[in-house]
């Protein structure tokens, strides 16, 4: 029997467990002391304490996770997203232990995880990239002005080892460049063990568009459409939808082809996402990064493609490649929107708001509404992890229908004794700019005061 250890926590662990149960795979959860009564630990067939609440002492303890996999006789390790999901060293340890790693090869993870190398790979694959600098070590920040003169402001200062918006700051002029770069470099050193950064031109009227790809590991790649992820706070996504609205068919096709070409150049294996910046004025697109894992927002793609991406990942990992989807890609239909419900205070720069969930009512699930959550009423959201309470996903025959389904779903949500972004999500759904699909990556920053007052 196949047995899957989920090297993660929270809603993604619950999500993976659900698919495993559907296909008869046994499951093993790991949990920290803070998560001893968590849903993912309760749902799994087996659960093992891994350490103290801080992630460095628990969910990032690679050796302990391998030990538990061996002790429980698990033969497969699924990393989910975040934590160790894009850690090439961990993937290597999994394979060295004779276990099956659900994801691309460690070498691919390493190559795409280094943002400088990823830009080079994209360029070699004839995928458009934004003007930028090479990697700048923390010891060479005095060379910043040399590179900034070659790249038009505004700029993004990025950690070479960062991802998902972590280790990224915007700077509009030379005066703030060194200070911003130093901050990013120190953060990168602390989070990723590498203080290297690079500069990249920032597109002000930008949309964040991504393509869900799946590779068979032999150069063959198919895609499951695109998603829009432009509504963000602090470069972290809040609302996503599939497909991305208001994109010319030729541009959409070129982005998908570019994503598949990039993945094929790496003989990519499994699920991945190629992210692009799309200039809202010119419809020119540029490579942003590649995530070598499943995405938080993958349910929107599953809703329009009727595919279980976790199932595809597991089948690929055990050698049962979904080759039929190369010649006969899934038909994409309808529209799907995902709202991330967070325990946070939007009016105070989205600071987390951990606490006790005295009351928690989430929408009833149906063909039109899907809920991914790992908390139930009475649980406590601790300060140790991401404050996401749940993901609420709607589906409709078109975008307007999906919006209306989401509005009704959000109205069903009830929470007490904890601050959340629920009212903000409702306000965005009612905002005319969102209804017209006229948002970009600056939308929340520019409109937060107005949205909070709605």
Summarize the structure.
With 454 residues, the protein is α+β, with helices and mostly antiparallel strands. Helix content is 34%, strand content 27%. Helix 4 runs antiparallel to helix 5 (106-113) and helix 13 packs antiparallel against helix 14 (422-430).
Question: What does it look like?
Answer:
The protein has helices spanning 10-23, 39-43, 62-71, 88-96, 106-113, 115-124, 144-148, 177-192, 249-265, 298-305, 309-317, 324-327, 399-412, 422-430, 432-435, 443-453, and strands at residues 3-6, 26-32, 46-51, 76-78, 100-101, 155-159, 168-171, 197-201, 206-216, 221-233, 236-242, 269-279, 285-291, 335-342, 344-345, 351-352, 355-356, 359-361, 369-373, 380-381, 388-396, 414-416. It is of the alpha+beta class and 454 residues long. The protein folds into 4 domains: 3-102, Rossmann fold, CATH 3.40.50.20; 105-129 and 204-332, ATP-grasp fold, B domain (D-amino Acid Aminotransferase, Chain A, domain 1, 2-Layer Sandwich), CATH 3.30.470; 131-201, ATP-grasp fold, A domain (Dna Ligase, domain 1, 2-Layer Sandwich), CATH 3.30.1490.20; 334-454, D-amino Acid Aminotransferase, Chain A, domain 1 (2-Layer Sandwich), CATH 3.30.470. The strands form 6 sheets. Strands 13-12-9-10-11-14-21-19 form an 8-stranded antiparallel β-sheet, sandwiched between helices. A 5-stranded parallel β-sheet has the order 3-2-1-4-5, sandwiched between helices. The protein has a 3-stranded antiparallel β-sheet with strand order 7-6-8. α4 packs antiparallel against α5.
């Amino acid at each position: 029997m196949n047995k899957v250890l989920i090297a993660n926590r929270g809603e993604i662990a619950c999500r993976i467990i659900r698919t495993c149960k559907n296909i008869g795979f046994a499951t093993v959860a790991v949990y920290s002391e803070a998560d001893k009564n968590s849903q993912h630990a309760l749902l799994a067939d087996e659960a093992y304490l891994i350490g103290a609440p801080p992630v460095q002492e628990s969910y990032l303890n690679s050796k302990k996770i391998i030990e538990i996999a061996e002790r429980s006789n698990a033969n497969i390790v699924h990393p989910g997203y975040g934590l160790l999901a894009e850690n090439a060293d961990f993937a290597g340890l999994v394979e060295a232990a004779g276990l099956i790693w659900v994801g691309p090869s460690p070498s691919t993870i390493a190559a795409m995880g280094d943002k400088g190398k990823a830009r080079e790979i994209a360029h070699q694959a004839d995928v458009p990239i934004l003007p930028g600098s090479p990697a700048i070590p923390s010891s060479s920040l005095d060379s910043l002005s040399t590179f900034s003169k070659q790249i038009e402001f505004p700029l993004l200062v990025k950690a070479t080892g960062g991802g998902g918006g972590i280790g990224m700051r915007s700077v509009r002029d030379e005066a703030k460049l060194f200070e911003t770069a130093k901050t990013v470099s120190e953060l990168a050193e602390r989070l990723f063990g590498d203080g290297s950064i690079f500069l990249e031109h920032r597109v002000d009227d930008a949309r964040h568009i991504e393509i869900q790809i799946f590779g068979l590991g032999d150069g063959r790649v198919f895609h499951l459409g695109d998603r829009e992820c432009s509504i963000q706070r602090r470069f972290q996504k809040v609302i996503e939808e599939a497909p991305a609205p208001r994109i010319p068919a030729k541009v959409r096709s070129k982005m998908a082809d570019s994503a598949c070409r990039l993945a094929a150049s790496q003989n990519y294996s499994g699920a991945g996402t190629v992210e692009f910046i799309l200039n809202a004025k010119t419809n020119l697109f540029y490579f942003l990064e590649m995530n070598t894992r499943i995405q938080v927002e993958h349910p929107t793609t599953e809703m329009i493609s009727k595919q279980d991406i976790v199932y595809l990942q597991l089948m690929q990992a055990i050698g049962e490649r979904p080759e039929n989807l190369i010649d006969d890609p899934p038909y994409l239909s309808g529209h799907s929107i995902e709202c991330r419900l967070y325990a946070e205070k939007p009016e105070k720069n989205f600071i987390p708001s951990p606490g006790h969930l005295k009351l928690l009512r989430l929408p009833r699930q149906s063909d039109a509404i899907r809920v991914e959550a790992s908390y139930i009423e009475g649980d406590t959201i601790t300060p140790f992890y991401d404050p996401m309470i749940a993901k609420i996903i709607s589906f409709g025959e078109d975008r307007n229908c999906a919006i209306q389904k989401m509005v009704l779903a959000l109205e069903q949500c009830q929470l007490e004794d904890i601050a959340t972004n629920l009212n903000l999500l409702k306000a965005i759904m009612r905002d005319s700019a969102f209804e017209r699909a006229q948002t970009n990556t600056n939308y929340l920053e520019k409109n937060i005061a107005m949205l909070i007052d709605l």
